[in-house]
Write a structure and sequence with these properties.
With 272 residues, the protein is an alpha/beta fold. The protein is built from 8 helices and 12 strands. It has helices spanning 40-53, 68-71, 86-89, 94-107, 180-196, 213-235, 242-246, 252-270; strands at residues 2-6, 10-14, 21-26, 30-34, 58-62, 81-85, 123-125, 129-134, 137-143, 152-156, 161-163, 201-203. The strands form 2 sheets. The protein has a 7-stranded mixed sheet.
Length: 272
């Protein structure tokens, strides 16, 4: 498993699949593991790394949202104290998420040493905005709908780390499963946080982290531009330049499928 970034306070792991990231925030008295994924050998690598840096520390497991690739490692870390949104807890599609994991493992003959189950959450974030003190660090949590219905943005205000979940990726355009309009609202939240708070590092769920504010704002701008074109296409019956879109990404075949799903969802949301 690739380590994308490492310091005394943070490790960013990168899976071989979909360039999915998992983050480990290292506090003085605690560890915060975020969205551990994908393959058993990768989860073993994360576990071994934790053993080297986490002796005697309280351990937390944070889920940015409930997509199956982000909860797939839950059973490996069941003794950790869990954090997620209230919408995550109340997700009506839990069984589908579990079926997605089972289908993936079945397709690739993967056996795991733990039971596949939906995470049980101990610390539930229900408000639009909430703060927690964990160890000597302060965390701010923001509800983040759009990509899906139960996302969270997490800002470690002490260390300046912003965990974006499946937003602001440099290797994907917006994948929208919940709501186009709510996705735009979440982008506005990102903009306010980055402009008004101390953000030294942004971590997306897929692709590369960035420590440059200009790059963070560029990702917001590109996401908005894509969604604007999406809305215009379905409301004005205007052709979407799909080839131009896909030309900017490395995996056009699969990404075209995600774009077409976005078009379908936007059509339902904006056509009268």
């Amino acid at each position: 498993m690739k380590i994308q970034f490492r310091s005394d306070e943070l490790i960013i792991f990168e899976s071989a699949l979909f360039r999915t990231t998992s983050s480990l925030i290292i506090g003085k008295s605690y560890l915060m593991l975020v969205d551990p994924n994908w393959l058993p050998i990768e989860l073993d690598f994360i576990t071994e790394t934790i053993l080297s840096v986490g002796k005697g520390k309280e351990k937390y497991l944070l889920f940015t949202h409930s997509d199956y690739d982000h909860i797939i490692g839950y059973g490996k870390f069941k003794d950790y104290k869990t954090i997620a949104s209230e919408n995550f807890v109340n997700n009506i599609s839990k069984n589908k998420v579990l079926k997605d994991i089972t289908k993936f493992d079945d397709a690739y003959y993967i056996k795991r040493t733990y039971v596949i189950e939906y995470p049980i959450i101990e610390i539930v974030i229900s408000g639009e905005y909430e703060t927690l003190t964990i160890g000597s660090d302060e965390y701010s949590f923001y509800q983040a709908r759009g990509h899906n219905a139960d996302g969270l943005l997490i800002h470690n205000t002490t260390k300046g780390i912003l965990l974006a979940g499946d937003y602001l990726s440099n290797v994907e355009f917006p994948y929208i499963y919940d709501s186009v309009d709510k996705y735009l609202a979440t982008l506005s939240k990102f903009e306010r946080i980055i402009n008004e708070k101390q953000v030294s590092l942004l971590i997306s769920g897929h692709g590369d982290y960035t420590s440059h504010k200009a790059e963070m704002m560029t990702r917001i701008k590109k996401s908005r531009a894509y969604i604007t074109q999406l809305i215009e296409s379905v409301t004005l019956d205007k052709a979407f330049d799909v080839e131009a879109l896909l030309g900017g990404y490395d995996f056009p075949i699969i990404m075209k499928e995600f774009h077409l799903k976005n078009m379908k969802l936007a059509g339902k949301e904006f056509r009268t």
